[in-house]
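Thread amino acids onto this structure.
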């Protein structure tokens, strides 16, 4: 009998994490849903096949909790961890000089430190599972730094660097590393900046003429990334365009983004 493969997803209570859970569950994978939003995890689990899901209340900033959550999932999956999807993250927009210390700290702790903890904690399980993959969520903001998203861009550049380094380090042991670079995705993260009276980030994106990428498209790219050979996986037309300009026309791109 074929042993089902297993994926552990942070930020699985909504948005991209939920869409990826649905995509992999549709292929009969076991799915571990991790989030700080317990109600969201329950909502995600309700949409997945019964008996194929385990829930893990996890703050990705807590390294010890990472160990406990992955150990719990390993018991559920029979020891398998085919894919570790480092997805949980937060966003913050606005001029860098107006960002409060606690906002900067939160972005760095969740978006960068939390993903580093995830990769570090998952390594023994990935190394023990043939053909495994570490899948990290970066952003188009890691292709060229985004004005108004300085700290966010910095954290995503960090994830890009982490992914590139581990792709080299872990390749000989059979662990694939993949990194997703979506542009603006229609998720709760675009609902608005906490404490801000301005238009939501979603409204500002739409007013700029940019198109939002559906979470289902990101989930399909996640599936393809795990089964493909590319380290950098660009999601959406805007991300592909930005990557091209950043590589081949950086001086022109700099002029454009500066207005």
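Threaded sequence (259 positions):
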């Amino acid at each position: 009998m074929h042993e089902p493969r297993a994926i552990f997803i942070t930020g699985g209570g909504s948005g991209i994490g939920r869409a990826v859970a649905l995509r992999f569950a549709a292929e009969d994978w076991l799915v571990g849903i991790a989030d700080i939003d317990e109600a969201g995890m329950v909502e995600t689990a309700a949409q997945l096949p019964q008996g194929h899901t385990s829930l893990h209340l996890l703050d990705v900033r807590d390294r010890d909790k990472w160990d406990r959550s992955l150990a719990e999932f390993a018991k559920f999956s029979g020891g398998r961890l085919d894919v570790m999807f480092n997805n949980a993250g937060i966003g913050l927009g606005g001029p860098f000089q107006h960002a409060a210390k606690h906002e900067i700290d939160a972005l760095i702790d969740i978006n960068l430190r939390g993903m580093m903890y995830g990769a570090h904690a998952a390594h023994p399980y990935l190394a023990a599972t043939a053909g495994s993959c570490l899948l990290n969520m970066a952003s188009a903001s890691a292709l060229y730094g985004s004005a108004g998203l300085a700290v966010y861009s910095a954290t995503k550049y960090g994830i890009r660097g982490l992914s590139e380094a581990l792709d080299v380090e872990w390749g000989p042991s059979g662990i694939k590393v993949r990194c997703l670079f979506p542009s603006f995705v229609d998720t709760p993260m675009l609902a608005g900046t906490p404490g801000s009276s301005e238009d939501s980030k979603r409204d500002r994106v739409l007013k700029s003429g940019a198109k939002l990428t559906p979470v289902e498209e990101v989930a399909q790219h996640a599936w393809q990334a795990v089964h493909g050979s590319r380290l950098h996986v660009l999601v959406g037309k805007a991300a592909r365009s930005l990557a091209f300009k950043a590589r081949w026309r950086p001086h022109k791109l700099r002029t454009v983004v500066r207005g």
